[in-house]
Amino acid sequence: MILKNIDKSITIPKHIAIILDGNGRWAKKRHLPRTLGHKKGVENIKTIALVASEMGVKVLSVFAFSTENWKRPKDEVDYLMTLPHEFENQFKDDFEKMDIKVVFTGRKTMLSQENLDVMEHFQKNTKNRQGMILNICFDYGSYDELTEATKAIARDVIENKLTIEEITPEIIGSHLYTKDLLPLDLLIRPSGELRISNFMLWQLAYSELYFCDTFWPAFSKKNLEKAILDYNHRERRFGGLKG
Ligand code: IPE
Ligand code: IPE
Ligand code: MG
Question: Which of 9, 17, 159, 163 lies at a 20 to 30 A Cα distance from 209?
Answer without folding.
Answer: 9
